[in-house]
Structures are given as structure tokens and as C-alpha cells.
Amino acid sequence: MSRLRQRLLFSTIVLLPLLLIAAGWITLLYLQQGGSAPFQVPQGFARVVPDDAALIEHGRALARIGNCAGCHTAHGGKVYAGGRAFATPYGTIYSSNLTSDPQHGIGAWSLQEFRHAMRHGVSRNGVQSPVFPYANFARLPDADVDALFAYLATVPAVAVTPPADNLEFPANLPGAMAAWRLLYYRPDPPRMAAPANARGAALVEGIGHCAVCHGTRGLFSSLAEGPRLDGGRVLGWYAPALNAQSLQSYAPGAVAAYLRGAAVDGHAAYGKMADVVAQNLQHLDAADADAVEAYLRALPAPPPSRREPTNWELPSEQRARGDRLYDENCADCHGKDGRGKDGNYPSLVTSSAITGPDPINAIKLTLFGAVGPATPQNPRPYTMPPFAQKLSSADVAALVSTLRARWGANPRPVSPGDVDAWGGIDER
Questions:
Q1: Using CA atoms, how far apart are residues 30 and 40, in angstroms rounded to an integer?
Q2: 54-102 residue pLDDT tens
Q3: Which whole-number Å values give the CA distances from 418 to 223, 233, 268, in the listed order?
Q4: Dihedral pair phi/psi, residue 282, rounded to 5°
Q5: Closest CA to 240 of 205, 276, 211, 279
Q6: What is the rounded CA–CA span in Å between residue 215 and residue 421?
Q7: Whole-model pTM?
Q8: E strand segments, 206-284
Q9: What is the CB neighbour count within 10 angstroms for residue 186?
Q10: Helix axes 16-32, 176-184, angle to 10 degrees
Q11: Spatial contact of 338 and 346, defined as CB atoms under 8 Å apart
């Protein structure tokens, strides 16, 4: 048998079945996306912008709740002109220009194009990265999408092109985002019945896209299935879990008040959440804030981990050092027992920065302090001073480890190396 015939026979017996299996798998993934429709941007529609004051105002309110300006405005840049950098495991993504500029923004888009981008994450600029929360925006009713379109049409044009994304291999390959979508994105099936708290679900799962920060992402930033808000790191902070279990220590109404900018028993928003409250959530009306709280309190906690618990032990010398540092620097405000004072200084016993699974927030708060956003609900927020100029990395590690050992759930001690690695100031 000739060498050529041997190669053909090998290809037929071995490679052809593998190719057929791969083709079948890709076809299945393609059909799970809904076929070709999500990848086809609507063409040939004229740009018709609704000129309705009530609709525009509704779009403005939705954009505020959804923090659209926060993501689509670079630090020091023009509002909605894009260019804000988002660091991801696969490179840096820059937000797009949403102003009414026809060349650099979306001023030439039709309503049909805008709807398609919001629902499918595919626009004339291609398949969007998972940084853009189209999985959440797909849940918005047409009336809300149309209102957002009408509002964005009123945003003054800014002739600025955001920087090109700086992606790493394999995300920089042609078609990489389309491949990611086939592998990791599954459009939600239509609900058979409206949830019991439809308004809360719409705010949390839809325009609020809370899972982008408070959900845990998997391989290559894949999204968790369903409204899972089990907590995770985002932009250098830990966004805590939001569910019936994690919120049980807060009195009824406390979460709604916090979202609208109040300091509840001294607890006010800090870090990235302070920006969200200051720019967006403080504008929630009372009914919507109550609906969000009710929805979050109804979410089930994740199943317990099957891992055997580790019996961490804090060295006695580190514990003694942490106790001394607490008495010298913290007890005057937070109390000897860590329960806060006068409703102005927060309790550490119930603080997710101390009791939660990740120490990064406690490290940053100790180093850089915090100030809650000034809102009508909290016009003169109390501040926590920074200690970076006073405490060494070893001091911070001992203090945070001691507090978490006192009131946490058997956490791993923090090392000075952890403080150095996680205690930086993130680019806003």
C-alpha cells in the first residue's frame, strides 16, 4: 500500500470522525445561541428617535440606576464619551462612546441596532466582551430599552474615539469573542411566570446588573447561571454575597436605606460601592429600594462547601500585636467589644469586611480609611482615617488577622505579603 493511500486511510478512520464530532459540537453551541440571529446586526433601518419628554426622563432614570455614565466615562473625560479602562484576566477593555456623535458614538444608530446590542451584545463594532453586561440588559422590556435610546440621543456629541482594547492571547485572535460567547454564554430561556417580586427582579437582574460585581465568574470570565450573588473580587475590592443568609444580621429596611445613601448604624458605602451609591443608587425611590431589599433577602444562600474546614491558628505573638494595635487605634471609635458607638461608628462584629471570606476590604480600609458618600440621607458622613502612614505591612496583617479571628469564621491569617499584594490603590 502506498504512503499516500495509508495517509488517506488514516484520515478517514481517525480524523474524519473527530472532525464530525467537533462540527456537531459547534453546531449544538451555535443552536443554543439561537442560530445566526444574535450575530446579525439589523440593517436598513432609519434612525428615528422618540421625542417624548416622559420617555427621555424615564431613560435618564434607568441610565442612572444602571451606572451607564460611570462605565462609559473615562477618569477626567467627557461624560459618556467612553474610554474607561477595565482590567480583565484577558487584557484591558475600554468602554465605548455612547454620545450622540454619529461617527465616534452612537448618533447614527437606529433603534433596532441599539435594541440588538442591548439584547445580544453584538453591534456594528462586533461581538462585545463580557465586560458589557448584555446578559442582564437582555431582560429589559422594550419600553425600557427605547427609553434609554431616547435619553442617550440627548447626550451632547463628543468626537472622541476610545483607545483600542489591549487583549492578550487568545482573546486577541480574530473571532475570539464570538468563540467565548459560543462556549460560555447561554441566553436565558423565557420565564413561564413572573417572579413574585417582579420589580425587585427587574432592578437586580436587569438594569442594575448586580451580579457583575457581586457574582462569581468562572473560567475566562464566564457568567454564573441564574441570579447568583455569591460574592467575588472586582476592581481590587471584594463585593460581598447578597442573599438571605448574608443579610440576616441587618434589620428590615436597613438594606434599602443603605442603597439610598443612608448610614445604617454607622455602616455606609465605601470603596467602589460608594461611587455606585453616590452616582446612582441614592436616586432610587423608596418603593424601588424596598423591592431590591426584598428580592435580595429572598435569594437562597449557596450550598455549603464540600471542602474540609481548615483549622487555622493565629500565632500568639501576632494575636497580641493585633490586640495592642486595636486598643491603640480602633477601640475609641469601634468600641472595646467591636460593636461600634452611638450609631455613628460601625460595628465590626457585623461588618462583611471582617466576617466575610475575603480580607482585601479590611486591608484597604485600614490602610486608606474611608468616607461614605454625602447624600440627602447622610449629608455629613463620618470618616475613617488612613493608617498607611502609621502602620507597617506586618502591623496591618496582625490587626486584620486578629479582628477576623475574633469575629470571622475561622479565616486564614493575613500575611505582610498579602498586605503588599492587595493593598494598592486601584485606578478609578
A1: 13
A2: 999 999 999 999 999 989 999 889 999 999 998 888 889 999 999 999 9
A3: 27, 15, 26
A4: -60, -20
A5: 211
A6: 23
A7: 0.85
A8: 232-234, 237-239
A9: 13
A10: 80
A11: no
